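For reproducibility, we list the full input for the magnesium ion complex.
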Amino acid sequence: MGLLRYIALRASLIIPSVLILYTIAFIVLRVLPGNPVLAVLGTKNIPEEQLQAIMEELGLNKPLYVQYFEYLWNVLQGDFGTSLIIRGRSISADLADRLPATVELAVAGMFVSLLLGITTGLVAGLKKDTKIDISLRVYGAITYTIFIPWFGLILQLLFALWLGLLPVSGRIDPGTALEEVTGFYLLDSLITRNKEAFIDALSHLVLPALTLGIVLSGPYTRLLRNNLVVALESNYVMAYRARGVRNYRITWHAFRNAIIPVVTYAGLQFALLLGGAVLTETTFDWPGIGTYLVEKIQYRDYPAIQAVVVVFAFAVGVVSLIVDIIYALIDPRVRY
Amino acid sequence: MREVLRIEDLTVYYYTLRGVVRAVERVYLEAGRGELVAIVGESGCGKSTLGYSILKLVPPPGRILSGRVEVDSVDILELEGDKLRHARGELVSMIFQDPFTTLDPVRRVEEQIAEVLLEHGISKEEAIDRVYDLLRSVGLSERLARMYPHQLSGGQRQRVSIAAAIALEPRVLVADEPTTALDVVVQKQIMDLLDSIRREKGMAVILITHDIVLAAERADKIAIMYAGKIVEEGPIDEVLKEPRHPYTKALLASVIDIESREWPQAITGQPPDLRKPPPGCRFAPRCRYVFDKCRREEPELVEVDHGRRIACWLEERRL
Ligand SMILES: Nc1ncnc2c1ncn2[C@@H]1O[C@H](COP(=O)(O)OP(=O)(O)O)[C@@H](O)[C@H]1O
Ligand code: SF4
Ligand SMILES: [Mg+2]
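The corresponding predicted structure, in tokenized form, follows.
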């Protein structure tokens, strides 16, 4: 019993899941061919002694279990180490630099997907078995299968190259001045009352957010539509009708019942959202964690890649915890 | 007795993809103030559809083809929109079989009861008081007001449903198998509650049930339904003492009669598919007394004695 105890329990479960993902990442990186030194030098033709010397200096010659625990120990103290590629560059600083861009994109994408998914699901559910319903169900099924880079490219072609309405890529025009406060450009431009920067940042955000949002909206459409149809045919809706409750209120009550599983699903989908964000970022040259990760994988920058995995795993754990709490608040049947 | 409910020539079909289901056909029924009228028949014979029609609440693909449903001389079937909405709850209301699904799982008991009052123009302050009165009048503690349906027992939930249904003191309450999902003890309590409410408020109760024993214990009047039609109707005592329609006899023989110590006799055969009911009398394929005319012509419900109506060709032979 007790929500607090439940939260504490759930929170403590985040630790093992982060550990597992770190371990997997660590192993996969070591098993995969390639090594950071060769990747940076771009050649295999260096004298063996010289290679060994650099490896020694980077700590890559230590036994694997030592590397594994050293890194883990540092992370526990909040230190993600330094890059193997750009010597001395703090990975924590890199992350602090890149994370706001990803969060901004993910939040915008989530917002768009929920907005689209809920509206289409609601309309489809209310117009069950009409042409509108069928079209929206097709929408839900198709968007679900779309490949993000391909879809992003189409949007870039259409809105940026042909219509010239929006920028092709990037996060803000290099010429636009913006004083960074939080790292979230929309927020920063609002705080500093910089209208020009706000419009610029927003116009850069539109296409990536639409790409991500549309692709992720399909499941919401389907889930809400089906739940709403079930709710509208339920016995309690029949009972509401029998007591002369107005239609719009009945619809609202049915919606409240139907939206609960959607909230849970949104939480489950968070990992997918991060995955989608990575693909969207590379498509739109968005300077977030996703592009960072792709860069770092090319150079086998082990600590940087591990840091991203740890941060993503942690974020997924925290978000699913938050969703669980929301779920408990909106569904009275949930008890701990 | 002055009737509060008068159903005339009611016909309701379901237009499904696999054919037209003739669920209710040319039904007549009356109920007086405070009277309990039981509608009894096997599952699938159209009882619930008849109940929904009284509130003009037949779900699609169902359609009411003809008929009148007068409550206090207002024809419910003529009403539309907001007038219909007001009639539901104020003139006629309904409770359902499954108390586990007929309350909204995510709203508190008090919200669901109060909503009925608020939706029919009662002020918020008054509604709050009335919710507590209503809870008490259905035998529930005020403590339950803030609870959610899943925290209540089946009997308590059915009481909440009753409280919400009678909140505006409608003239007619349709109770569709209100105790079927409950255990015997709770069943008796709920029926006692319905009895006291109808006596106190003069509310007519249409009790829909497949259980002829329950009807025998509680009803003033009984209407036996078979395959979408009423086949026998009359005051409960007379029908029980002298059942005249072969289906009524079969129904009564199918239950244990403690006095006569006879074994119950199950009715042989199945009720017909209402998409293609048999020609002539719909009961003919299962009737022990069937004769030629039964298969050719459909018997109409005719008054045989004062207040008794029967649809069977045997009645013609009695004359
Ligand atoms: N929504 C519906 N769609 C199609 N047919 C229905 C629907 N509801 C009921 N029926 C059919 O109408 C007939 C009467 O059903 P119902 O009124 O529920 O009977 P009862 O309440 O006596 O069991 C049955 O044959 C049933 O299959
Ligand atoms: S009409 Fe004929 S078949 Fe129908 S119940 Fe009467 S005797 Fe039986
Ligand atoms: Mg029924």
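Chain A has a mean pLDDT of 89. Residues 278 and 290 of chain A are 4 Å apart (CA to CA). Both points were considered when choosing residues for closer inspection.
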